[in-house]
Amino acid sequence: MHIRLIAGSLKGRRIAAPDNSRTHPMSERIRNAVFNSIGVEVQNARILDAFAGTGAVGFEAISRGAQSVLFIEKDRVAQKILNENIDTLELKNTKLVRASVAGWCDTYKGEPFDIIFADPPYHDPQFSTVIKLFALLKPGALMVLSHPGKGEVPIQTGVVVVDNRSYGNAVLTYYRREHEKIA
After folding, report:
1. Quick one: which of 3, 43, 90, 91 has the most CB atoms within 10 Å?
2. Helix (H) and strand (E) counts for the chain?
3. Residue 96: beta bridge partners?
4. Could you please report the per-residue DSSP string of 103-167?
5. Residue 49 β-bridge partners
6. How far apart (Å, rounded) are the C-alpha atoms in residues 183 and 64?
7. pLDDT tens, position by position, 75-122
């Protein structure tokens, strides 16, 4: 199975995806809607693609001008395909971390991110891990969470929901970290 990148410098390039249900790559339609909605915010951004799967979302961000993408993926089959996709696209401004997102969050000490894409498995949305990701957003930064359309979404003080969009059985919730208040 292959996924086509939609726009930007990698437009039309294809990346591999597992031929199984281990990942649920974001559809071309939804990826296009996401990137159209966040527009130029992607340009020169430091991106975290959590629960990366095939890497389609992160590669689309690079294609549209992101400075760098850090992929986090724990599934070994998905890691192998993601690494092959990085090699095929000959990208130097990406890095794959082979770990669970929760475990990685507990040890990460680097710079916060401009945009975080979180697409956990629909059968296990891991909202406690998603809450950990909020701490990795720069003030004013954006997180896009893809999740099944039922139930509550995670919330945390200092991070506000700015949009919700439904696409069949997928819902995208957009969060923005508030700017620090000056006392």
Report:
1. 3
2. 5, 9
3. 71
4. HHHHH--S--EEEEEE---TT---HHHHHHHHTTEEEEEEEEEEEESSS----BTTEEEEEEEEE
5. 71, 117
6. 38
7. 999 999 999 999 999 999 999 999 999 999 999 999 999 999 999 987
- Half-sphere exposure (Cβ direction) of 71: Cα atoms closer than 13 Å: 29
Q: Which residues, 6+ apart, have CB-to-CB distance to 148 below 8 Å?
A: 122, 125, 169, 170, 171
Q: Which residues pair with 72 in a beta bridge?
A: 50, 97
The torsion of the CA quartet 134, 139, 141, 144, rounded to 10 degrees, works out to 20
Token pair 């031929």 in the structure block, residue: 19
Band of pLDDT at residue 25, cut at 50, 70 and 90: confident
Q: Say if pTM beats, i.e. exceeds, 0.85.
A: yes
Q: Say which amino acid occupies 163.
A: D
3-class DSSP assignment, residue 11: coil
CA angle 91, 97, 103 (to 5 degrees): 160
Long-range CB pairs of 121-124 (<8 Å, 24+ gap) are 121/24, 121/51, 122/24, 122/147, 122/148, 122/169
